[in-house]
Design brief:
This protein is mainly beta. Helices cover 5% and strands 50% of the residues. It contains 1 helix and 11 strands.
């Protein structure tokens, strides 16, 4: 089991910055990827950024490239999402997630589809709200 607890959300004006944190406990090292997803009201959940658990690969949605940075502190077992130059369209509930694939899959595909493939085991945090005002 993997438990994920997000923090760091809040309200900020456009152009501002926030850093989200995700404290992981349990067997997070057994996962293939960890990442951040978001869901705005009336929209589907979408991948924002993911990181390969056992490596250094990071991947970003086109909409946040150059704006968001995902990172991980292994000693603290914590995942971060640094969000700069925030825009009103970044307003959403942000979720931390981790996945262990059941078969060959990729972190990028997981990010793009929010699906881990057949037999995948995904873990989700409770979410943290980010609101950006213009």
């Amino acid at each position: 089991q993997v438990q994920l607890v997000e923090s760091g959300g809040g309200s900020v004006q456009a152009g501002g910055s926030l850093r989200l944190s995700c404290a992981a406990s349990g067997y997070s090292y057994s996962t293939n990827c960890m990442g951040w997803f978001r869901q705005a009201p009336g929209k589907e959940r979408e991948g924002v950024a993911v990181i390969v658990t056992g490596g250094t690969g990071t991947y970003y949605a086109d909409s946040v490239k150059g704006q968001f940075t995902i990172s991980r502190d292994n000693a603290k077992n914590t995942l971060y999402l640094q969000m700069n130059s925030l825009k009103p369209e970044d307003t959403a509930m942000y979720y931390c997630a981790a996945v262990r694939f059941g078969r060959s899959w990729s972190c990028v595909t997981w990010m793009n589809t929010v699906v881990g493939g057949t037999g995948a085991l995904a873990y989700w945090g409770q979410g943290t709200q980010v609101t950006v005002s213009s």
